[in-house]
Amino acid sequence: MHHDDLNRLRWRCTRRAFLELDLLLGEFLDQRFNGLTEEQARAFAVLADLDDHELWPLVNGSQTCDDPQQAAVLAMLRESRENPA
């Protein structure tokens, strides 16, 4: 991912209305983003573009995601939420 694109993604991850999403996405970006496949990185960017009210139910598991790549990233996010580094 290009440096400017990564900076824009970082801004979207850490300027959230929900503090928990802000912390979760920012930490995930710092600690796990570089290990994602290209498809997973794109899925993460799509998720980061969602409104907090759309994203939070996906992250907490109260709503399911039909996209397999996004679902895989959401599982990683939930895991990192349960087992912080």
Automatic annotation (TrEMBL):
<dbReference type="InterPro" id="IPR005631">
    <property type="entry name" value="SDH"/>
</dbReference>
<comment type="similarity">
    <text>Belongs to the SdhE FAD assembly factor family.</text>
</comment>
<keyword id="KW-0143">Chaperone</keyword>
<dbReference type="InterPro" id="IPR050531">
    <property type="entry name" value="SdhE_FAD_assembly_factor"/>
</dbReference>
<dbReference type="GO" id="GO:0005737">
    <property type="term" value="C:cytoplasm"/>
</dbReference>
<dbReference type="Pfam" id="PF03937">
    <property type="entry name" value="Sdh5"/>
</dbReference>
<protein>
    <recommendedName>
        <fullName>FAD assembly factor SdhE</fullName>
    </recommendedName>
</protein>
<dbReference type="GO" id="GO:0006105">
    <property type="term" value="P:succinate metabolic process"/>
</dbReference>
<keyword id="KW-0963">Cytoplasm</keyword>
<dbReference type="InterPro" id="IPR036714">
    <property type="entry name" value="SDH_sf"/>
</dbReference>
